[in-house]
Design a protein that fits this description.
115 residues, alpha+beta, Beta Polymerase, domain 2, 6-stranded mixed sheet, 4 helices
């Protein structure tokens, strides 16, 4: 049985926060895109932290039964993309996040509020 996208979203956000990711936000894409249900966007202050965040997200997703469809950018650690199917995680180095500003590109998406 596949992991529900809402549960996978919470797992990825918790994993990123566990590694002290900065400015973690989730965008709900369900009504505006077929790409995924959610984007999780966060950043780290160094290449090492970006890699640690991405590694923890991958580890926790796999531990909970999610299938990793792809990971890109681990070698440079400037923008790591983790494709979990219904949830896509973007882990940016702080400088790259400001430059690409994908929150603006997906401004039609609603920001998910966490309790």
């Amino acid at each position: 049985m596949a992991l529900h996208s809402d549960k996978l979203l919470q797992i990825t956000v918790d994993a990123a926060e566990d590694k002290k990711a900065v400015n973690v936000i989730a965008l709900n894409l369900k009504e505006i895109s077929l790409v995924a249900d959610y984007f999780v966007i966060c950043s780290g202050n160094s290449d090492t932290q970006v890699q640690a965040i991405a590694t923890e997200v991958r580890k926790q997703a796999e531990k909970n039964g999610a299938r990793i469809r792809g990971i890109e950018g681990m070698d440079t650690a400037r923008w790591v993309l983790i494709d979990l199917g219904d949830v896509i995680v973007h882990v940016f180095h702080r400088d790259e996040r400001e430059y690409y500003n994908i929150e603006r590109l997906w401004s039609d998406a609603k920001v998910v509020e966490f309790a």
